[in-house]
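Dear colleagues,

As part of the handover before I leave the project, I'm documenting each prediction I ran so the next person doesn't have to rerun anything. This entry is a single chain, and its sequence is reproduced below.
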Amino acid sequence: MRLRTTSAALAGTSALLLLTGCGAADMTKQASPFANAQGAKTVTLSVQSWVGAQANVGVAQYLLEHELGYRVDTVQVDEVPAWDALSQGRVDAILEDWGHPDQEKRYVTDKKLIAPGGDLGVTGHIGWYVPTYFAKQHPDVTNWKNLNKYADQLRTPESGGKGQLLDGSPSYVTNDKALVNNLKLNYQVVFAGSEAAQITQMKQFAKEKKPFLTYWYSPQWLFEKVPMTEVKLPAYKEGCDTDAAKVACAYPHTPLQKYLNADFAKTGGKAAAFLKKFKWTTEDQNEVSLMIANDKLTPQEAAKKWVDQHRSTWRAWLSS
């Protein structure tokens, strides 16, 4: 992932199965019948698999339904396919995009089929992390130049005699394999399979106080449960990640964006206006995410609790 991007898909956590409302569907198999319905009070939201995206959609769906009287349909769709679906009107909005310059140029700038929906209010960042208890024992591990020194301690049965760099789903597009190669690190990228599986492994490592090195991102609720310290990679500079095979720099910090289908942006009435104004903080998102992932609430249950406690925040999103 140049950011949290995916050219094939960004799959993720089984927690997506918790989605409620008018249904979650796999966009590779079907489109929502409610998207872009002219004159109907319906909205279709794309929801990605990581829990922060579920938090966004959960709160937006709850308010659209309970405050504005819309029927909301949610569809499971990975990041790049979501842009295709949005351009075709099969979904009306993406609420958390981590940066897809190719799709933005094609659909926003050139074809004008997608319209910017504004900042989400949250800044995303991907990096490599070790548990803070390990960083305190070995402070120099937080500089990439010293990682080879700890490869033996970070080795697992899955890493083939090298240190393990734990990633999530193999469908995530990351720079990690290129970074390992270009920085000449004695590590093997090992995929957990999904965000949920990755979290399970990290929590187990932490329970046993074992060291680990992992690809991870913020905002993310797990930092509340498993404190982690970022490993400093070579500084990010604009364009240093343009050639995926030659990447040898850190991931950037990215203000996360919303996007709307262009027709929906013009004719979506109060729903479109609301989604453009939907903007909250990392703390807000993490509060809802923690309820979903840790407390096992459904996104709608978590949304209701948040909405009940933060009226002054969301009332501004409904003002005309």
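The longest strand covers residues 114-131. Residues 288 and 306 are 7 Å apart (CA to CA).

All the best with the project,
I.
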